[in-house]
Amino acid sequence: MTKIKLCGLSREEDIKAANILMPDFIGFVFAEKSKRFISRDKAVNLKKILDPKILSTGVFVDEKIEIVAEYLENNLIDLAQLHGNEDEIYIKNLRKFTDKPIIKAFKIKNEKNLLEAEKSTADYVLLDAGAGDGKIFDWSLIKNFNRPYFLAGGLNPENVAEAVKKLNPFAVDVSSGIEVNLIKDPEKMKKFVKKVRGS
């Protein structure tokens, strides 16, 4: 079954809603330019109330390798999601500090982007439309993509069932699609999870 990642959680209420819905992953955004940025201290407090069966992902954009590794090795996060210009050398160097899983995000505009994603040495790849702007990309581009991936970009409770049916991704990743005025909405979160799980 397609796994679920609810990203950009930033409040205790978000974590409590996630604990009820039990997605496979949640995401904390550590990129300072993001509207969903949270500090390390805030993430520590939120992680304390997160159900331990839910894996926490840290979203970084061109962060210092030592900082990403420290978050992973101190169990603040279970996976690192690299959402900037991190290349293969960056991933190789990060692995010197940690053996925790790495997700590398790729903006899918054309076949060249897909080839880069297919060749990535990251544990997982995330195929996205852009930078959290709530838009989908041309899904027909990835019909022959041959490795497991997180599907992101413009997903919401209204279109996620179609995405799962058409593409059968390893996981679906949502942030703005479960928000009202940049705040996570528990009803939208619930609806999204139900649509993915077909119940």
Features of this protein?
alpha/beta, 8-stranded parallel β-barrel, single chain, 21% strand, 33% helix
Structure description:
With 199 residues, the chain is of the alpha/beta class. The chain has helices spanning 12-21, 40-49, 65-73, 88-95, 111-119, 160-167, 186-197, and strands spanning 3-7, 25-29, 55-60, 79-82, 102-107, 124-128, 149-151, 171-174, 179-180, 183-184. The strands form two sheets. An eight-stranded parallel beta barrel has the order 1-2-3-4-5-6-7-8. Strands 9-10 form a two-stranded antiparallel sheet. The radius of gyration is 16 Å and the shape is globular.
Fold topology:
Layout: E1 3-7, H1 12-21, E2 25-29, H2 40-49, E3 55-60, H3 65-73, E4 79-82, H4 88-95, E5 102-107, H5 111-119, E6 124-128, E7 149-151, H6 160-167, E8 171-174, E9 179-180, E10 183-184, H7 186-197
Parallel strand pairs: 1-2, 1-8, 2-3, 3-4, 4-5, 5-6, 6-7, 7-8
Antiparallel strand pairs: 9-10
Helix pairs in contact: 1-7
Helical amount: 25-40%
By DSSP, the count of extended strands is: 10
Q: If helices are DSSP runs of H or I spanning 4 or more residues, what is the number of helices?
A: 7
Which sequence of strands runs across the widest sheet?
1-2-3-4-5-6-7-8
Class by SSE composition? alpha/beta
Residue-averaged pLDDT: 95
* Poorly predicted parts: none
Cα radius of gyration in angstroms? 16 Å
Strand content: 15-25%
The run of helices and strands is EHEHEHEHEHEEHEEEH
Distance between the termini: 13 Å
Name the shape in a single word.
Answer: globular
What summary fits the major beta sheet? Answer: 8 strands, parallel, barrel
